[in-house]
Specification:
The structure is a homodimer of 302-residue chains.
Chain A: E1 9-12, H1 14-20, H2 28-40, E2 45-50, H3 63-69, E3 77-81, H4 85-93, E4 98-104, H5 107-114, H6 118-134, E5 138-144, H7 157-169, E6 174-179, H8 186-199, E7 205-209, H9 216-225, E8 230-233, H10 253-262, H11 271-285, H12 292-301
Parallel strand pairs in A: 1-8, 2-3, 3-4, 4-5, 5-6, 6-7
Helix pairs in contact in A: 2-3, 2-11, 7-8, 8-9, 10-11
């Protein structure tokens, strides 16, 4: 077990992974206000949007407009999902220096999500990553369904390690090992991070948890013990209503900060400012945000 | 850090701590059905009710009737809260062999909750514990607000250790160190369990978490690492609606089992049977049960 670190880095994915999974359409003004508020809260990495087909992900159709209007603070990295070279061109036009590709650890999920086999997607991403690195961009690769697949069930740990290695080998600066359906438990996190750290540089691994079964926080805790230092979260727990079909909100940034602050681990992110950003967005979302801390605060105020 | 154990013991507190904090009145039939279903799920310790004044806790007024009708399985311990010698007499009449007294770690909370100072309550409990032990009863003592008080805020760790010691010294078999308002974070759990284990036998310590801020699971994880082997939980997360004032549900037994099952830690309790018991009770409660696992299952079924 690693000692807990003095500092970890949060990657705020609310504007992209969060909003993408919300039914309500959020306009550009609200998205820009959210990103600016998250910048003001002290985040150093914010995933702003996705340069994907608006046919497939209508919520991300205005990513160019959002990038044009956010106020970029010095030292803060604003990223976008990029599925192919066309998307990379759009990222470059929007002056985006941080991109992310998204692979899966499950064949069925890969085919259903991006209509490609895992190998086909990795071949395409290799070209994207090469071009991005040539343009001095920072590249993150998501590895989704790394802890379980909604179609295939269990996912083999050695396959996750192998795919993580392939993504790093092709030039990704970081692989976000992702629990897409929120089914991971901390024993799995402990085992997987141990296996990853044994053969790969752990400082290039991030963990991305959804809180579907309430395990996201304890999974971060196990990840911290496993030596991981980069964690994803979304303001308010955006990305899923607890009472809606397919509920699968991201780990709420506020909830994560409550724990990290308590552990004395510095993030540079102000929990109250994140909560204020969530509250400002909440009326547009159409359901109570899943963050437990927000709910506890609301209950206290009544 | 302790290695994780092969087995831990759950104390199911839904019928008492859970229902006591629900606004809906639950009738004797439903309470008996709940306790019997929890017995069938494999629990070995179930807190059934409280022999307290019906004026103060109307939901527990029918505890005698519930005890008269539950089917007691061999080897299962059915307990009741007992505030004084009169309550102990009622427990004896109901053939209850496991009782619990409830002290607080905060003066203000003690006065508001039981109208006594901490010392006054401990003096009264000393007589109760002595009489209970003379009658060969098993005695648990709750130490509430051990991680924070709604009125005083932070609670001094050395006071918690001292009060735990006093409760054990007066003859309690077990002290349930309790996060009454769900404000503990795992750093605090780690520090407190370390401090307790340094001076007291950790096998006589249980941990009792509420999930108000979503930290209950990770607090159990930290407690496991600290060597604790007895944890409280309530079917469905009874005891607080996430969208109600003062939301403060207990850690849901299903959610705890999802984690413990994943970690390969045996409890003897069947998660699916607990979930079925929660679902059977849910229509009487008047709001969705807070268990994240129940919610995820519901979402999957739709």
């Amino acid at each position: 077990m690693n000692a807990f670190p003095d500092r970890v880095t949060l990657v705020e994915v609310g504007p992209r992974d969060g909003l993408q999974n919300e039914a309500a359409r959020i306009d550009v003004d609200a998205k820009v206000a959210l990103v600016d508020a998250l910048t003001a809260a002290g985040h150093t990495r914010i995933e702003v949007g996705a340069f994907v087909s608006p046919k497939w992900v209508p919520q991300m159709a205005d990513t160019d407009a959002v990038f044009a209007r956010i106020r970029r603070a010095p030292g803060v990295r604003y990223s976008a999902l990029v599925p192919n070279l066309a998307g990379l061109d759009r990222a470059a036009v929007s002056d985006v220096s941080d991109i992310a590709v998204f692979a899966a650890a499950s064949e069925t999920f890969s085919r259903k999500n991006i209509n490609k086999s895992i190998d086909e997607s990795l071949n395409e991403y290799a070209a994207v990553v090469r071009a991005a690195r040539d343009a001095d961009m920072h590249v993150r690769a998501y590895l989704s369904t790394a802890f379980g697949c909604p179609f295939e069930g269990a996912v083999d740990q050695s396959r996750v390690v192998d795919l993580t290695r392939r993504l790093l080998d092709m030039g990704a600066d970081e692989v976000a090992v992702s629990d897409t359906i929120g089914i991971a438990h901390p024993g799995q996190v402990r085992d997987l991070t141990t296996a990853l750290a044994a053969v790969l540089p752990i400082e290039h691994i991030a963990l991305h948890f959804h809180d579907t079964r309430g395990t996201a926080l304890v999974n971060v805790y196990a990840g911290l013990e496993g030596g991981v230092r980069v964690f994803d979260s979304a303001a308010g727990g955006l990305g899923g209503c607890p009472y809606a079909p397919g509920a699968a909100g991201n780990l709420a940034t506020e909830d994560l900060l409550f724990m990290l602050d308590g552990l004395g681990i510095t993030t540079g992110v102000d929990r109250l400012k994140v909560a204020a950003a969530s509250r400002a967005l909440a009326p547009s979302i159409g359901h109570p945000l899943p963050s437990r801390l927000l709910q506890a605060d609301e209950a206290t105020r009544r």
